[in-house]
Amino acid sequence: MIWDNNKIYDFNPEEVIKCNSSEDVLKLLKNNKEIQFVRIFFSDLLGNIQSDFAVPRYMIDKKSLEEGFWYDGSSVLGQARINESDKIAVPIPETAVITPWAYSLKTQGLEDKKWRELIMFAKIYNPNGTRYEGDVRYVLEKTISKAKRLLGANYFYVGPELEFFLFKANSHGRPEIVDGKPVLVDYGSYFKGGCYGAIRKESQLILQNMGF
């Protein structure tokens, strides 16, 4: 982790860096030279996050942030057929967050080389500049707009419920399988987190460091 584990962790929401424009994102990159990639997030039709769309730092400028990045939508569940697959992911500046951890190279002799990443969610567009109807974010935007128009709803609150299992991972980050089953490394339930909820609390501290 980036923060010093020997110091008491003190989270101040007012110190979290927020972006409101492409200029803010470029300033953030300029002031944080260790960021080497911008990772772009969006969801497929079932809401599964697509999170390995990484753009090298040198490709990020005002034009690319505002016009977006082309990709093959036929590789994403529910997006498009191969003959109409071109899609454009346009990053949303307000979602820009620096990951609080560092990545390192695995190549022998270069293990000391590290980098960090900036993550951003994106809106999906068609090549003609229109919003893509299969973009679940666009569906949500239209639903909120409809709720305001028909019901007079000024606020729309969404509360995610995070549930997960913790598996022992191999050197490739995949669950280790024994007798056909993944090996659990922790057990817990409501108000009964393993290790006194240490993993859950560490997750909260990381999220706080990212501005949540």
Q: Overview of this structure, please?
A:
The protein has 212 residues and is α+β, with helices and mostly antiparallel strands. 20% of the residues lie in helices and 22% in strands. The strands form 2 sheets. Strands 1, 2, 3, 4, 5, 6 and 7 form a 7-stranded mixed beta sheet that branches. Strand 8 and strand 9 form a beta hairpin. The two termini are 17 Å apart.
Unreliable spans: none
The count of DSSP E runs of length 2 or more, i.e. the number of strands, is 9
The SSE string, one letter per element, is HEEHEEEEEHEEH
Quote the average pLDDT: 85
Protein structure class: alpha+beta
- What share of the residues lie within helices? 10-25%
Broad shape? globular
SS strand fraction: 15-25%
List keywords for this structure.
seven-stranded mixed sheet, 212 residues, 9 strands, alpha+beta, 20% helix, two-stranded antiparallel sheet, 4 helices
